[in-house]
């Protein structure tokens, strides 16, 4: 089975370029934009060799994982376009709900305290600003990049990487994959569902006019809501309780003195142990 777009995506004039292996799907999407591509183009691959994450971090993937980037072009309001990462997170969560089993199996303690197979609901959570977690471990990441085009137009690239068959073990945070969680799903099947779910969530977003509904849906899946967090911002660490995201999708915490702090960009760590690691 190869990569393909859902009928809904095709009906709405999305296009697809698929690769077995690629350097970076985001880089290729930006190249297409600068060469005059009109947008609504998905670049996908089962292996990415020189991708990048937030803050320029390297992001390579094993063969069989999903690397997908969506190129959009137009006269965007960049403030609104910056919230497309939240749309992408919801779309990916919806796609995972559609194609993955409702339960995952692992070896652990059962209700009687005995070791053996146990099952638990697969709950995909959204971690601000751009990660998806399963069982508290990173399953996927999202990266937005942009470049200016002629005539006051912009290219927005939404990069999505999912650990389908493997996950990195050399990262300073817990990570997981769909295969480890017991999900019987491949990159092609997941992308098919993602291309469909993207269109549905993009309609809700409606060029930013539906952001209030996107925010509401995102908060319903938010990881760590109401818990202790530490956020690294420009070398400083801010601590408090994760209260909400505001109408602009900024991260809002309440510190020990009761002050609400709004954060536009930063690295979030959950819980007391994670807070210590943020130092």
TrEMBL record:
One Gene Ontology term, aspect cellular component: cytoplasm
Gene Ontology molecular function, alphabetical: ATP binding; biotin--[biotin carboxyl-carrier protein] ligase activity
Catalytic activity: biotin + L-lysyl-[protein] + ATP = N(6)-biotinyl-L-lysyl-[protein] + AMP + diphosphate + H(+)
Alphabetized CDD domains for the sequence: BPL
Keyword annotations from UniProtKB, A to Z: ATP-binding, Biotin, Ligase, Nucleotide-binding
Domain of life: Bacteria
EC nos: 6.3.4.15
Top-level EC class: ligase
Residue span(s) of domain BPL/LPL catalytic: 5-206
InterPro entries: aa-tRNA-synth_II/BPL/LPL, Biotin_CoA_COase_ligase, BPL_C, BPL_LPL_catalytic, Transcriptional_repressor_C
Record keyword Ligase present: yes
Protein name: biotin--[biotin carboxyl-carrier protein] ligase
Source organism per UniProt: Phyllobacterium pellucidum
């Amino acid at each position: 089975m190869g990569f393909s777009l859902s009928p809904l995506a095709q009906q709405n004039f999305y296009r697809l370029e698929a690769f077995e292996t690629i350097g970076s799907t985001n880089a290729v999407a930006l190249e297409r934009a600068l060469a005059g591509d009109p947008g609504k183009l998905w670049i996908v691959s089962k292996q990415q060799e020189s991708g990048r994450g937030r803050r320029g971090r390297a992001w390579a993937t094993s063969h069989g994982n999903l690397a997908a980037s969506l190129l959009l072009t137009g006269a965007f309001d960049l403030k609104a376009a910056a919230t497309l990462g939240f749309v992408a997170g919801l779309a990916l969560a919806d796609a995972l709900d559609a194609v993955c089993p409702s339960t995952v199996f692992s070896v652990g303690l059962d209700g009687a305290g005995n070791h053996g197979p146990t099952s638990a609901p697969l709950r995909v959570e959204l971690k601000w600003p751009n990660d998806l977690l399963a069982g508290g471990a990173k399953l996927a990441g999202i990266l937005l990049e942009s470049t200016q085009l002629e005539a006051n137009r912009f290219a927005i690239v939404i990069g999505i990487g999912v650990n389908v068959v493997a996950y990195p073990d050399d990262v300073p945070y817990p990570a997981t994959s769909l295969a480890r969680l017991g999900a019987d799903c491949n990159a092609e099947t997941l992308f098919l569902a993602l291309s469909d779910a993207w269109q549905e969530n993009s309609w809700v977003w409606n060029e930013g006019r539906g952001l209030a509904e996107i925010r509401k849906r995102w908060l319903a899946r938010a990881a760590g809501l109401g818990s202790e967090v530490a956020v690294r911002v420009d070398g400083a660490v801010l601590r408090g309780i994760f209260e909400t995201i505001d109408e602009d999708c900024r991260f809002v915490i309440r510190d020990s003195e009761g002050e609400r702090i709004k954060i536009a960009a930063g690295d979030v760590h959950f819980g007391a142990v994670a807070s210590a690691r943020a130092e």
